[in-house]
Amino acid sequence: MVTLTIDGVKVQAQEGSTILEVARFYGFNIPTLCYHDELTPYGACRLCMVEVDDGRRTRLVASCLHPAKEGIRVKTHSQRVVEGRKLILELLIARCPNSKTLQDLASQIGLEHVRFKMESKDCILCGLCVRMCAEQMGSGAIGFVGRGQKREVVTPFRVSSDICRNCGACMYICPVVELQCRGVKSPGEVCNSCLVITPQCVEKYDQVMCTLDSCGACVQKEEE
Amino acid sequence: MTENAFEHGEVDKIIESHSHEKSALIAVLQEIENSYGYLPAWTLRQVSEKLEVPLIQVYGVASFYDAFHLTPRGKHLIRVCLGTACYLRGSTRVLEALERELGIKDGETTPDLEFSIQSVRCLGACALAPVTIIDERYFDKMTPTKINSVLKRVQRKNEKS
Amino acid sequence: MKKVRTHQELVALRNSLLENRDPNKPCVRVCISTGCRARGSLDVLQAFRDEVTKQGSGTDVDVKQTGCHGFCERGPVVVIGPKEIFYQGVKPSDVPEVVSKILHNWEVVDRLLYVNPATHQKVLCETEVPFYKMQTRRILANNGRIDPTSILDYIAVGGYQALAKAITAMSGENIIDTVEKSGLRGLGGGGFPTGRKWRSCREAKGNLKFVIGNGDEGDPGAFSDRSLMEANPHSILEGMIIGAYAIGVNQGYLYVRTEYPLALKHLQIAIDQAKECGFLGKGILGSKFDLDIKIIRGGGAFVCGESSALVASIEGKVGEPRAKYIHTVEQGLWNKPTNLNNVKTWACVPLIINNGADWYAKIGTAKCKGTAIFSLVGKVNNTGLIEVPMGTPLKQIIYDIGGGILEDKKFKAVQTGGPSGGCIPEELLDLPVDFDKLTEAGSMMGSGGMIVMDEATCMVDVARYFLDFLQYESCGKCAPCREGVKRMLEIVTNITAGRAKKEDLELLQELAEMVKDFSLCGLGRTSPNTVLSTLKYFRDEYQTHVKDKKCSAGICKDLIEYSILEDKCTGCGACLKLCPQQAIQGEPKNPHTIDPSKCIRCGVCRDACPFEAIMVN
């Protein structure tokens, strides 16, 4: 067992565990997009970055990959970290504005507006589907292809794969495509409806409607 | 390139010459690209099968590196260096002149499969900037006006042979 | 070639080679490296071989092919030893005269000599040419002197003596101590202390370890690795063999860019020859030490210069870097301890073993010992490869060695470290070049690229150029680099096109700082450097683009206009004929005009005009 400090609190961790695993065990909230505890950590979304002081210097590391070491002092919400997370989320929403997961995460983090030219892609290249297909389903029918701006997740030659079993695990694990946000009214806007303290649906329905999946009550006023 | 038993055999030979090592994937693909001028889809499937590397990984590698192309290329490959030294000495204008002259963009091939344009970043011949290579022949201090006469020379040599 | 089995046999071989070589015999050394080769030096080499046979007895003059002398601007370069007469721009038609004059009592062909642009004097010897005189050539010392395809040439100048000394008289600990004491730091650009890296690798757990030589020099504008690999491949091998012996490694790899065919060829020849002579393979120099080195050709990706991406590439995967919380020296190639060094760093090792750590450390600065190699290119008079002690002021490099700015224009900035580096302005010209000083100034040493820029360079366009390069080369795995570089490029492009909003500069700064902190690998983390350094030192230029929509350097196409000066135009019509947009009008022998609505600012007319009558404003 090793002892380390997270946000001023002394915690204990099994040797070999990552900072993220320890933090989540103790209830510290570190947002992630490309992480799933049943899949190999990937370190691509960079939302899980935290500040680590190892006694000699302080640096930013990806908590999903960095080992929990004896004596380190971790800050999960320093200003540098929070500002950076906001900007990364802003960049991702500019790419995939209709993702409810991204919109909700943005609300939580206090992002209100996107300053970039909007696109309308539906993939943030987190690789969860690729790892799910390879590691949990034992298939490897899809993967990353292309470099940089041309990077995408496809099957070989973009045709039906003969090793795909249509299990749907890739869609299940995808944080972006599955849940669509329908509350964004103009480009660059962050919806801010579902996770505010007083959802609009309470006024209309006398109770909070968000226990139902994507009920759309928050946007019904507009449609009426 | 037509896919037939003979060609399959040639690709097999390449794979064997690297002792069927999975880590030799890039070297194998480089030799196939050398032979055919590009990587036909059937060669990727064969490599995946014989090297026992998942097809998606072979396809991923083929699409990641600049040395590989998944569509046929022109008979004459024109490489324009856009490295810093060449850029500062005006190589983008050479590229633009080429694109205008041949009617295709960087990375494309003329419909008659005669010419392909490929911009590259630094060939290590910076003192000769701007550098253009046509069919492995280096041309130093290239300008938009010179490019036209050079192209005509290449085409004429072509017609003769 | 016979196997050399002991240190004594090596010494005897060298002595017999030296005895059989007449030091007074004229030797014509022709550079056949990529730069001179592109200017036809192979034909020059053949012409010399033919002429020497024709004019003399065939044995009174030696003709030798060599690698890069470094002064590529003046190629094809030919040096006649032992008097070291330096001829530049030699053509095959010059050869008969050169040969007859040598045979005729060492007469000289005046017109081929180098002329010092400052004194207008002709210079006879290579060592007197200011470009060379002010350098301290240690790593590059034998470039241009030996035939890179001849191991005997290398042995004759003392090659493999360091290896023999290391294997027969030193222990692994000894060797690592020596390298540590020398203060050698990685010349690939990272500047990590080499001895310390070797020690960590040696102490790492496990018996199977690897060494790698990084020859994937992808920085546009840098060609020092290419030059060394082409001109003196054995120096790199010798260093790797010594290092492998010290760390306890039996398998090495040389990773070389596929865009360097001559380097690949010469390295393979060197490996085959080294094997034949017993410097590679089983039981090297009579010891129990075995080593094999294999060449791996890059697939064409700048990111593979980064060590974890390079390792992935050798494993047959895409060049995606990996977060470095576990160092390559502990878990690298196939998760085994791996010591990766740049080819220049490896080439320093034999020098250190032969001459001692103190010799190496006696030049340089307190924290950066030895020499640094730079590819000096851009708007300087003398472009080429140079080697200077660490700590040499930038001003000296650019003005004394580089000969000052081309066409007497004004110096504006020097860009170092390639796309990961930054721009250094005039006020910092006294900066001594070493790893730390360059990093402090917001740039870095990197691969040694040093690009000099004059007043006709737009710094915003330079930032745009490097961002464009990095966007193309980014592997795309992590969000900050992939999305961040893209948006920085978008903003800077808008600025160059006159579409910028006033909040853009702050947004650019914010993006740059986040990408620097949050990216997964060195490519992403250093990608904002050019933006950050140009924003810091040339902010007014950005402001002019944003507020006034003007490009004072006359580069940004959307912000400039071409026009013809009436008093200079003779109406020759050269421009009219070539204009691809038919934007030029005019009667013969009368001043022509350009229609700005049709003009695409392609520059063809400016190139063609013999009277400099076309102006940019």
Description:
The complex is a heterotrimer of chains A (224), B (161) and C (617). In chain A, 27% of the residues lie in helices and 13% in strands. Chain A contains 7 helices and 7 strands, in the order ββαβββαααββααα. Chain A has a 5-stranded mixed beta sheet with strand order 2-1-5-3-4, with helices on one face. In chain A, β6 and β7 form a beta hairpin. Chain A is globular and about 50 Å long. Chain B is of the alpha+beta class. Chain B has a 4-stranded mixed beta sheet, with helices on one face. In chain B, α3 crosses α4. Chain C has 617 residues and is an alpha/beta fold. Chain C folds into 5 domains: 105 residues, Glutaredoxin; 210 residues, 3-Layer(aba) Sandwich (Rossmann fold), CATH 3.40.50.11540; 84 residues, Ubiquitin-like (UB roll) (Roll); 90 residues, de novo design (two linked rop proteins) (Up-down Bundle); 56 residues, Alpha-Beta Plaits, CATH 3.30.70. In chain C, the strands form 6 sheets. Chain C has a 5-stranded mixed beta sheet. Chain C has a 4-stranded mixed beta sheet with strand order 2-1-3-4, with helices on one face. A 4-stranded parallel beta sheet of chain C has the order 9-8-7-10, with helices on both faces. In chain C, α7 packs across α14 and α8 packs across α11. The termini of chain C are far apart. Chains B and C meet through α2, α4, α5 and α6 of B and α2, β11, β15, α18 and α25 of C.
